[in-house]
Fold:
Amino acid sequence: MPNRLLRRALPAALLAAVLAALLRSQTSAAPATPSAQTKPDGTARQTAHPWTGSPYGPGNDFESVDRARLLRIKQVMDDMGIKPGSSVADIGAGGGWFTLLAARRVGPQGRVYAEEILPKYTRFIQKRAQREGLKNVRTILGSTTNPRLPLNTLDAVMILNAYHEFEQPLAMLRHVSASMKHGARLAFIERDDDELRREALDAIAKTGRPKHRVDEKPDGNEFTDDHRLALPIVEREAAAVGFVKLKSYRLGEDNYTLIVEKK
Ligand SMILES: C[S@@+](CC[C@H](N)C(=O)[O-])C[C@H]1O[C@@H](n2cnc3c(N)ncnc32)[C@H](O)[C@@H]1O
Structure:
């Protein structure tokens, strides 16, 4: 082939080869990924990206002065059976707002394990507890599937505004259950998606498309938007791991709590 012809033909041949390789990789990848929404622990729903914000200072809703009232936290702690001497875990503890409340209630004979997947939060909680003179707080760095809590130890567990972020919720719940004594209680506090569900269904009816980023669930009726999770989903997953429902009730704004027991 003369040089000029070769120079013209080569880029076209290269492009064709790259395109063919791309096509091959896409078709062969498809069967290896059965469902983007099925997680290794068997959960078939989308989860939110973990919060990575600053635990410090202004603008942090988790420290707002109104939060205890909004979340009726005293009543929730009563319903969890937290009392002086209890062993409690705060899973996905963030800046430690609940950890500190629980530590004051359980007193020097009790213990609170503040668990997180990000070291910046465990370090923050450690310093915060020291500053407050709370010697009964232990921080634990867990993984996204295992909170690494001591086995058969806990009287009560709180998962506050964090369950929707658990990448593999069922795997986490199995470990949480193993760390609890029989009769111990687990509380979830989440925001539900009733309003989003209504808005999304309205938008679908009008435009054929949801307004929010909405993740359809296998039954076609359940979805969660980032950082919101409908109560029936949490109830179903807790039951799947063997927890028995004690009660659920609405808190301020669009928050709710679900309290379950390990039998
Ligand atoms: C929205 S923040 C809430 C913090 C705190 N519970 C509160 O309400 O003040 C959620 C926290 O869950 C943590 N998280 C996400 N996935 C987790 C997992 N698999 N195990 C433990 N913590 C997790 C995140 O790092 C984040 O700090």
Observations:
- The longest strand covers residues 180-191.
